[in-house]
Description:
With about 70 residues, the protein is mostly helical. The chain has a domain at about 20-65. It has 2 helices and no strands. The chain has helices at about 20-35, 40-65. The longest helix is centred in the last third of the chain and has 23 residues, at about 40-65. It is extended, with a radius of gyration of 17 Å. It starts with 19 loop residues before the first helix and ends in a 5-residue tail after the last helix.
Amino acid sequence: MPKTKVDAEPKGHVAVRLDTPTIARLDALLPLYALPGRDATRSDALRAAILAGIDVEERRAAQRNGGPG
């Protein structure tokens, strides 16, 4: 376990701009990501969407490259 913040591996930070309809779609998903005592944020929804979508895109890439998918 790192002893200081300096020793910790940095987290990736990405900023994105989304159009209004996409933000509305993410906002509609917020209840899925809420926890008891903690409301979900748009970052939570976007993170979940990316993690779900990256699996799909990795399978597509594998199929395109002739690998198992």
